[in-house]
Prior knowledge:
Layout lengths: L23 E7 L3 H14 L4 E4 L15 E2 L6 H21 L10 E5 L2 H16 L5 E3 L1 H7 L15 E5 L3 E2 L2 H14 L3 E3 L4 E7 L2 E7 L2 E10 L5 H6 L8 E12 L7 E4 L4 E5 L4 E8 L11 H14 L8 E11 L6 E4 L5 E5 L9 H14 L13 H4 L14
Parallel strand pairs: 1-2, 1-11, 2-8, 4-13, 11-18
Antiparallel strand pairs: 3-7, 4-6, 5-6, 9-10, 10-11, 12-15, 12-16, 13-14, 14-15, 17-18
Helix pairs in contact: 1-5, 1-8, 2-8
Amino acid sequence: MNRTAAGGGREGRSLWRNPTPKSSYEVVIVGAGGHGLATAYYLARNHGVTDVAVLDRGWLGGGNMARNTTIIRSNYLEKESIGIYEYSLKLWESLSEELDHDLSFRQCGVLTLAHSTGDVRDAVRRLSANRANGVDAEWLTPAEIHAFCPLINVSDDVRHPVLGATLQRRGGTANHNQVAWAFANRADSFGVDLLQGCEVNGIEVRDGRATAVHTSRGRIAANRIALCGAGHSSLLASMAGLEVPIQTRPLQALVSELLDPILDCVVLSNTVHVYVSQTEKGELLMGAGMDGYNSYAERGSVQIIEGQVAAALELFPIFSHVQVVRTWAGVVDVSPDASPIVGLTPVKNLFLNCGWGTGGFKATPGVGWANAYTIAEGEPHPLVAPFSIDRFTSGALIDEHGAASVAH
């Protein structure tokens, strides 16, 4: 699939080429989602590495990149997580200008509700950690929540009264398709080959070194191979004899019929288990937690949809007559400590970027930058060094369970 640009004097011009695969490249990146495309772009832009191919078994940006709920924030708990997400957020703030493409990036604010004394304690702890690490964070009372987002039901006469909320005003959303297309266009302009419909079915390893990928379009040799396949990373790594400690599960979302603009922020609630925002088109975009079983299927369970709709109606009774139009699921890869795995592997010249769970989209530019450095320099970028796969044997875990505010 190749997109044609519209606007800005680009009418009728393709955003990227559809080249024939070469027999070898300096770097092969597996996965043409946000992380793979951003890695390719920053390899070329920051390090002058342009002999790069990005492979995808489907179409560019058609996997999890097209199936997420586009929330962007950096208010995580642990300093390592804050480091990569805050760096990414700073890149987001100038990314439209850098890529010369409207990404529909909106810093509308991300509001995380607290419904119990436990919620309040955890929220204040995270707020303190954010401030200590230079991240903007505020605490709002129920009255301040009502002033910021009048649609939220802050009445005491509900099952889970709203006791307060944290607010990151710099957080927000972006258009996932535009992000993928912009990174693809800029990578292509540097000479990066974007190979769609090119499924990897084997990774060649000789003397402990990754040397090539076997694909549906033939063998492609490479000096360095980077896996950015999200939920399928464990399958890809196993082709090189590498076992990766992640589980893959469906994560569901849904959109409503089109409405006038009524919700100008992102609202998260872990207790009632839903997150809600409104797209530029006017849809209400909702999601919740992962399904409780491992699967690569891009569909989910009816009870998850029922639960997130019920939760949304508790927070927003005004939505009771809104119609659900479409539901879907992505496949997310979750590590034992709910933090990503990025960097070098025991297989030489094989690089790993996976385990982002539900946080992958917001990290797109930051991990692309750091991953490109790691591949080009052969050593971990400081931002991703703590996320080495070695931490699962050393015990230096980065526990973000419960700090992800439902799923995002």
